[in-house]
Structures are given as structure tokens and as C-alpha cells.
Amino acid sequence: MTAVRELHVARITEAVAELSVRACTELGDDLVAFFRQAITREESETGRDVLAQLLENAELARRTGVPLCQDTGLAVVFLEIGQDVHLVGGSLEQAVDEGVRRGYTEGYLRKSAVADPIGARKNTGDNTPAMLHTRIVPGDKVRVIVVPKGGGAENMSALGMLKPSQGREGAIDFIVETVSKAGPNPCPPVIVGVGLGGTFEKAAYLAKHALLREVGSTNPDPRLAELEDEIERRCNALGIGPAGLGGTVTVIDVFVEELPAHIASMPVAVNIQCHSARHKEVVL
């Protein structure tokens, strides 16, 4: 019989607080490597200058501890909780929110959450609540992933309940059209997360979760890897370019996740992430 491991929720609070600050100030090595490589293939002189500025910005943020972007986003938190873990010491959701509160307050990060979104839109004052997603997985560990998500890119995301008859080409057209309509608004170059199948809400979750993949990684499913490459080629051909000022590097990467769908449905979700694609994680 597998032993149950106890984990105090205070550990999760500490992790969320630390990761919130680190995510907003330390751009991932995969993105830094992308910018360096993209400068060599961007055809636009203005585009190359923008990419060089993004590199400089990343270096300054890491060195000074100042956020990569003034929009430090809503705190999206993914928890992968081992089924052999017993969480003790209080409410898990409250522990996560306390971590966000500490990270955004003590780290001097902008608070962007407003309550009553179609009314008073009053700032909650501490960037809570977290946008929390939990999943139960095998094992006795807890994986904590913090993903600050800015409004500019999130606003350009979309979900379509397409007809099955539209097929592969219809899905690609919807995704590319979403990137095209976004134009300069999400601060390109962007990462395009795509969720195919499932249900209305599951497709959106898949698209957001897809953004966690490492830039430059290859989808283990050859069929989806080919789809990602085709979407990336078509999006880069739009000519939007870095900062929307024209060029050949509009997209950093395209990541697709999929699930089976109902026989009458073909959900396609697109979650766009700006060039400041921030996420940090730890396993407890």
C-alpha cells in the first residue's frame, strides 16, 4: 500500500509568492535563445531592432529585478497534485491566493484584477483571486506553475465552435485569422496556444495549457507537429512582424493540444501569448 505524504499548504503559498516575482522578472532561456536566433533571420531592419530591444529588456529585468513588462498580468496558476499527497493546514485555494497576494505586494508588481467586471470594475488591491487550474496526477509531489497573463494578448484570444465539415483547413483558417485580426495588439512576436476538440471550456483550457511548452520543442505527435509548422508558416507570412511594425517573425512558436470531440462539434480555441511569455515552476 502506497504511503500518503503530508504537505502543508503554507509550502504552496511560499512557492506561488516566489514564482510570481521570478516569472515577472526572469524571461526563460528558451525565449532568450529564440530572440538571438530570430535576429539573424528577420528580414526587416526595424524588426531586427525590435528583437534586439527585447533581448536588452530581458537582460535588464533579470539584472535589476524590475518586471519585464508593466502589465504583470492576472496570476494563472496550474497545480498538478499527486494523488498520494494529503494537503494539510487549511484551504488550498486560499493558500494559492495568499501566495499571489504576497508575491504581487512584496514584489511591487502591478495589481490588475478588478471585481464586478461589467460594473464598478474596482481593483481587488492584491491581484487575487488567482485563475487556478488543478489536476490530479500519479505520485506524491505537487507541481506548481505560475503564469502571469497580460491583458493585451489575452484580449486577442478566441474560441470557435466550428462545424466538423470545416475540417483541418477550416481550423487552420480560424487560427491564422485570429492572429491576423490581433495584428500588433498582443505585442508580437507571439506564442500561439491552440486547443482542439473536447468541449467549449476544455478547448480553452487546452489552448492556455499549451503555452507552457518549451519554445523550440517538437510535438511528440508527428501529425500535430506538422500542423504546428503549417500554422507557424502561414502566420509568419502575414507580415505583422515584431511589435507589429512589419517583418517575417510574427510568431515565436505554435503549440497544439487536442482531445476527442463530440460527433457534432469541432471546438477550436486560440490563446495568444505576447513575447513576454512568462512562467516559472517548482515541484514540491
Give a description of the structure:
With 284 residues, the protein is of the alpha/beta class. The chain folds into two domains: 5-24 and 68-149, no CATH class; 152-278, 60s Ribosomal Protein L30, Chain: A. It contains eight helices and twelve strands. It has helices at residues 9-25, 29-41, 45-64, 92-106, 151-154, 167-182, 200-210, 222-236, and strands at 5-8, 74-82, 85-88, 114-115, 122-123, 131-137, 142-149, 158-162, 190-198, 251-261, 266-273, 280-283. A hairpin with a 6-residue loop joins strand 4 (114-115) and strand 5 (122-123). The radius of gyration is 19 Å and the shape is globular. The two termini are 22 Å apart.
Descriptive labels:
26% strand, four-stranded mixed sheet, 60s Ribosomal Protein L30, Chain: A, alpha/beta, 284 residues, 2 domains, single chain
Q: State the shape.
A: globular
Q: Radius of gyration, rounded? A: 19 Å
Largest sheet: 4 strands, mixed
Order of helices and strands: EHHHEEHEEEEHEHEHHEEE
The neighbouring-strand order within the major sheet is: 6-2-7-12
Give me the number of helical elements: 8
Low-confidence stretches: none
> Which CATH class of the largest domain applies here?
Alpha Beta
In round numbers, the mean pLDDT is: 97
CATH topology of the largest domain: 60s Ribosomal Protein L30, Chain: A
**Corresponding CATH architecture of the largest domain:** 2-Layer Sandwich
Strand content: 25-35%
Class per helix and strand makeup:
alpha/beta
Q: How far is the first residue's CA from the last residue's CA?
A: 22 Å
Kindly give the count of domains.
2
Helical content (DSSP H or I, runs of 4+)? 25-40%
**How many distinct beta strands?**
12
